[in-house]
Every structure is written in C-alpha cells, then in structure tokens.
Prior knowledge:
Strand content: 15-25%
Structural class: alpha/beta
Shape: globular
Strand order of the largest sheet: 2-8-7-6-5-3-4
Number of helices: 15
Amino acid sequence: MNASGPAPEQVFDWLDEEADRRAAAGLTRRLRPRAADAGEVDLAGNDYLGLARDKRVAGAAAAAALRWGAGSTGSRLVTGSTELHAELEHALARFCGTQAALVFSSGFTANLGAVTALSGAESAIVTDRYIHASLIEGCRLSRADVAAVTHADPAAFTHALSTRRKQRALVVTDSVFSVDGDLAPLPELVAACREHGAALLVDDAHGFGVLGEGGRGAVHEAGLAGAPDVVTTITLSKSLGAQGGAVLGPRRVIRHLVESARSFIFDTALAPGSAAAALAALGVLRDEPDLPSRVLAVAARLSAQLADAGLTVSTPRAAVVSVSAPSADAALAWATRCAEQGVRVGCFRPPSVPDGVSRLRLTARADLTESDVDAAVKVIVDAAP
C-alpha cells in the first residue's frame, strides 16, 4: 500500500469482500417492500393484537397529525414533548401498575437509554446471553463490567452476581425471548437480584399486550410491576400497532432517565401521530381485555398443527412460534415459497439467532381466524424443505 493509502474508488472495496462472505454463507439480506394491501396472511409482523390497521388507532394517528403536525419538531427536552406524550405516559403507567413512564422514539432507544443510564463504569451488568440486540448495544455502551450468562438459568445469574467486582449491579433480560418465544424465569431472577443487591431490567416487548391480566405484560403477571427495584421497557410497535417505546418504573428512575439517558435527550421525540395511535390502541386493549387470550389461542393452534405435521416447533408461551430449518439457505427458500403462496413468515438466520439455528419465526395475531391458521399451516407444511 502506498503512503497515501487506497485510491478513492477503492476505499470501500472491503465491503464487497464482506458481501461475498455473507452470500457464500447464505446470509444475504434484502429489503422487500410490501404493498399497502398485500392480501397475504401475515405471520411475520409483530402486530399481535391486529391494531395497526384498526380504524380507531389509525384514525387517532391521522387526527393527531392534522392537529399537531407530522413531526414532533424537536427533542423531548426542547419542543418535542406534547400533551399527547404526557397523556400516553400517564396512561401506560396506570395500565401497567408502575409509578411513572417515559416515552422514547422506539423500543431500541428505550433499551439503550435504560441500560446506559442505569449502569456505568462503576457497575456490573449480568445479562441473559439471548437478550435483544438493543440491550446488547446498551451493554456495549455502558462502560460496565458485563457478564452474559447461560440462557434462562437463575443459578448462572446468581453466580455472576455473587462474584462481581463492582458494588452496583443490574440484571438485564427479555421477558419473552424474540426468537423462540420462551419465557425468562422472572421470579427466580428477582430473588437472585434481591439476595445480591441488584436491580432488574426487563424488556417486556413481546409480553406486553399478550401476557398478564388484560395484557399488562409478563412483569405485571409476575407481580413485579410496582416493585422499587424493577424497571420495564416496552415497545409501542407490537401489541399497540403504533411506533415508539417506553420505560416504566419508579419515579426516581424515570427522573434520572430524563436527565441522563442520551438516547432520550438527544433524539427527536416520537411523532404526535404515533403517540396518539398508541394511546388509542391502549384504550382498545382496556376495552377488549380478551384480545390477549385470542393471541395465545392462535399461537397454540399454529404450534399444534405444525407439530402434528412432523415439523420441529417451539411450544409458544406468548405470540411467537418458531419452526426449525435445516440450514440458512433452506430457511430462506422456505420463506420465499410461503410468500409466493400468500403467507408471509419471518426467516431468522445467523447472526439474528444466538444459537446459530436457522428457523421460520411465526407470530400469532388476535384477528386471525381458525380458517386463516389452517390455510397458513397447509402452505407452510407443503413448502417445507
């Protein structure tokens, strides 16, 4: 290499080499824009309660955009906090049984803000090794000592907490793990935290709206919603069919996030239309508390029928059902054949899957009928490798 380095047209040559490696491993990813009305059975999205297209929800978003404008115009601490944001935060806290809530622009930024603001160089973080990527990024940015332990193993958490070198400690876990849909052992984890003086941070993105009384989430179901040492993060883009994220917990935690969470302070606030949509969806969930049980029933029907057909299927504890595939290439081809037959399914391949096993990821929705499920199962089985 000469002293001046590569020529301008060669600076990004390494990207082509990376793309070739991904292609050879069957890991190429492409955007596939969908039409407004694709006419498919959607088992890939996370619209668990079927509210993204609900007229009450979409109508609230449209009305808010006309009243408040298309965007929030600034960060929450400048001009971005509207009355809608405050109303949504109060409603979320009341519904979930916490002292306070704070709305972020996404679930990803909520997790980044919570992990980094509640840890730091003087802290130890103990995480489940299968946590969501947003939590992993928060841990990387935290400057804390981080230990990723065996999946869903309370003894591993206890050992890591008991051998930590820092006084402060934060345990981080998903409530429902997004790949297979299995549950974290929250009662055992909070017991370990209390034995060793640690706080517990739970990402309830896939539990909120699906588990617990009226869909109040896995943390509420475990009796931990109002606990002084437990913080919950959620997304507004799954069960509520909108956009955004939130952190729920003790008032002093929320106050600290307002003053120190960089993904809150320096990020443009959630658009008013999205805040209004989430607020309207929360109202629908309050008025129709049977929606979560309908999601669980659809997930159980999907899983049972696929298992009866001889496929290797996870046992759903929430809305997520995974079906193992023999390879990354086979999973992609399987998902493509399903889409061609009018059934949209998720295709999870490394590095999205922490165990390295490629699979189809199916998501249940409350608005799917039994005939929808039966038809989708037939397509998936017929298209199997």
